[in-house]
Amino acid sequence: MSGGDFGAVAEAVRGAERVVPRGGGTKPALWAVEGAEVLDVSVLRGVTEYLPSEYTVTALAGTRLADVESRLAAEGQYLPFDPLLVEAGGTVGGAVAAGANGPGRLRYGGLRDFLLAVTFIDGQGEIVRGGARVVKNAAGFDLPKLMVGSLGRLGVLTECTFKVFPRPESCATLRVVGMALDEALEAAGRVGAGAVELECLDLVHGLAGWDLEIRIGGRGTALDARLKRTADLLDTDVATLSGDADATHWRARREFGWASPDASVLKLPLTPATAGALEDVLAGLDAGSIGRVYGAGVQQAFLAWPSERAADLPALDRALAGARLTALALRAPAAAAAGPILGYRTGGALLRRVRRALDPDGRFGRL
Amino acid sequence: MTSADATNFLDTLTRRLGPDRVLTGAAPMAAYESDALTAFRARPRAVVLVDSAEEVVDVVRLCAGANVPFLARGSGTSLSGGSLPVHDGVVIAMNRLNRILEVDPVRRTAVVEPGVVNLAVSDAAAPYGLYYSPDPSSQSVCTIGGNLAFNSGGAHCLKYGMTSNHVLGLEVVLPDGEVVQLGGDSLEGVGPDLVGLFVGSEGLFGIATKIVLRLLPKPETYFTLLAAYDSLAAAGEAVAAVVASGLLPGAMEIMDNLAIEAAEAAVGAGYPLDAEGLLIVELEGEKGQVAAESELLLDVVRRSKPYLEHVASDPDDRMRIWKGRKSAFSAVGRLSPDYIVQDGVVPRSRLGEALTKIQRLGEEHGIRVANVFHAGDGNLHPLILFDGRVEGELERAEELAGEILRLCIDLGGSITGEHGVGMEKRQYLGEMFGDADLDAMRRIRLAIDPGELANRGKMFPDAEAPALLSHGPHPLEAAGVISRE
What we know:
By secondary structure, chain A is of the alpha+beta class. Chain A has twelve helices and 18 strands. In chain B, helix 13 packs antiparallel against helix 14. The two termini of chain B are 39 Å apart. Classes of the chains: A alpha+beta, B alpha+beta.
């Protein structure tokens, strides 16, 4: 199988009874499925078209996100959804299949908002294209969006086109440490509602309570005044990170440098109104001290579930379902759960019909 | 269906909803026979005016049981014929489902029913300093349900996206009457993005009855720049220069001379009448940032050598500039008894090439074409002017429209940026996508709606078409309520 040879992927799908795609292997909960053949798509590698003036980049699904980002950086552009696990070797297809975003998704939106076109192999081995390689398009069903978060269960992605944006000229971060959660949520709300547009707004559970981290980016000449304007809203001691320290800090966030390497990593959709319910779930499982981040303006939680508590993941699954919360495991022990999705589910009636259309023989397995 | 079955079906509908809310017969249904794509017209079996989500479920289940096609309709402003009735089907008029159920300033969401008018969402959010971003030109009448079905856009899509980027959760009635919840309140999700699949499905997957929308903080300030050029190409080059500068304006719009003249005559926006190309660029956001960006923008635009530039001096001046732009289509429409609005997309760097070719195609067909377009995202809106009463003109206009769509496909773009495929562009979907792509879409359609009851005949190339019949403006358009963009 060589780069760009989608026929070989199609052949491999047709020849398998159960198959799960794997790119960089950074999110094992998605592909470590018992009884399924792992289809390695990391050989589908390379940026196939990059048009800086169109704000579009197209890459084969096995292309490393780091390669895409460095191509974009050379033209002063970036992937605004802020992909996860870039340095760890994450790929374009894996990012789309997981549908998960980094802290920077706060500013302009998540992967769903930046995926313009896809090519994938469906469960019958057909090569299917959806969307278009232009920044605006409303023709046909939005198959690119359907592939976002599809976890390799609706098709094997082979090529993806993203909308890209100019990168902020410079960034800096304000940091307040050791707040109570209520206090941090209130401050996040206040700062989020302010006029200054933010790149990131994360609440990080640390040793001494919650740290509020606010990243601001844009034209260098206006940055100091905007930082001050935001700090004035906080009415407390604020530390500032800038330059390399700022960049390194946020890179570590999306690489899960803050989580133990053997911990399970879970992502949960969140709102400021449901953060309390998640805290209650964790407290109920005596897990109030686990590493966690309520990020992107409290729209997503990342939990680092300790390896010594792996046996309690089914209990977490049930407790989340009871609280109407949903989680996606990015890393988790293979035997821990029935699949990478834990907790409350919606959309089943529609999803079953879509699966029947794209994977009638159930090659990709259940979702 | 036998005539006895048909009578029985209508009787059951009438029993459920009452005679006042089931319209039959030519006169009461006349307003529902067409939408803003006035070239098509079809008579439904009945129009039902529903009052609640439960009634939508009831009607859909009745239709499914009797194998009667149906479609939901809001204000009927679709430019692609998306809300054109299915002949002998049921039109479910959603306008009474127009409650804004909740505006939550902390989550920055609004929960609305589908019959809510687009602008009403921003009005309800305004007290909290929030607004709903997608702004189709018909936003004072078009409904959120219709916006959702066709993934509507507007002038501010490059930076903040189309309708799809602003819908978080849905309650949906599938074509067999099963009710399903999709998504939620958060900007994030888990599992396949079914909300994303449903938005823009043109009514083929069923009817949304409850919608969670994302709201954005209102920008603190705007910087709106008007620049006039002596050629369309120069205006296009200015857009390329702005993009290359690393700026990300909220909107970049271009109008050609015919559009400028018409807009000026209609609303007196203060546009220079002798301009061949008029560029509007708008930055928005917080004061400090906009001030820093506006310096760079002015520098970049001046280097593109406009013969005239004007910065909006105050909010009224800004509104005047936008009023001209947003009224351009209906204004151009006054120059001609009939017109077709196209909605193709081309890569931004090929805008100049596309416009030159469109002009030439128009000349070849002896048909005038005006151009107003969202330059920032390559979304063209050529306006094809014709007179439907002149034998053969409609056909020639349709032919030209088709050639423009093919041009967009050839240049690597799309047949529609924000109006949808609907009835109008069905035969071109197969030129943009391959057989396997269309087949996958068809399989999804059939798995969700095996009887093809929901908005039958739209989007797919092989569907039956009603005859091209009428000419003249939509009734709302004639009344000056809607415009085509």
